[in-house]
Amino acid sequence: MTYESRYAIGPKEYKSLDTKGLRETFLIEKLFVEDTIHFVYTHYDRYMAGGAFPIHQKIKLETIEPLLKEPFFLSRRELGIINIGGSGKVEVDGEVYDLNNKEALYIGKGAKEVYFSSNDSQSPAKFYLNSTPAHHSYPTKKVTKADANKLELGALETANHRTINQMLLHTVIQTCQLQMGMTELKTGSVWNTMPSHTHDRRMEVYFYFEVPEGQAVSHFMGPMDETRHIWMNNEQAVISPPWSIHSGAGTSNYSFIWGMAGENMDYDDMDKSAITDLR
User: Fold this and answer.
1) Known binding-site positions
2) Which of 105, 214, 218, 268 is the most buried (most CB within 10 A)?
3) How does pLDDT run across 4-13, given as a tens digit for each residue?
C-alpha cells in the first residue's frame, strides 16, 4: 500500500496557481504500480481514488494508519471498483467475485479482508478504486454493463455523442454516498460533459482511459467564468472540486470513469452553464 494526501483549496487560491501548481494540486499522474495498491486521499469530501494492479501475486487492501486510524480499511468506508484491464478476482471476507473488463463491484462498510488478483499475469487486471466515508453497511454487489442504467447523450454533429453507464448509483444499488459510472465516447466524438455544469453539494473525480497511444485529453476545470485546462495522458485522474466545472476534449475518442461523493445523490442536481457563457 502506498498513498499521498492532498488538502482542499478554494476558487480564490486556485486563481494563483500556474501550470505546475495546478497539476500538483488536482492531477493524479500515476495510479497503477505493479503488485501495489496506491491511493490519493483528497480532503474534498475525504474522497480516495486509487488503483490496485496485481500481476505476480494477490495483494491485500490494508488500512492506512496515518490517514484512517482504523483497524481495517473499510471500518468506516465504502469502496467502488471498476476493472479496466484483463479478468481478475476480488475476494471479500472469503467470498470471491470475478471481474472482467469494465465490470464493477461495490463493497460496503465493515468488510475486513479484501484481496485483488489477476487471472493471467500476461493480461493483468487493473482495478480502479474509489472510496468514501460511510455511515451504514450495504451488501457487496457486482454490477456489469448490462446491469447499468444507460443514457445516450449528445450527437456526432456536436462531437459529444456518448453512452453513460450509471453503475454504482442509488438507482442501481444501495450506497451511502459513493456514486460511480463509466462514459464511453463514440468514434468522432471528443467532448465530455458539455454543456458543462457545477454541483456545489458534491465533488467528483474523473479517470481517463482508452486514450490511444500518442493522443491526450485536455480537461477543463475552474469556476464557469474563469476556467483552466490540464493536459492528461492515458490512465490518469483529475480531482474536481464542487466549485469547478469538469469537461474534457480529447484528440481522439476515449472513455472515462466518474466518481462522486457529497451531500446529495440526485444525479441531475446541478447548476448548468451555457457553452457561450464559459470564460
Assistant:
1) 197, 199, 204, 246
2) 105
3) 999 999 999 9
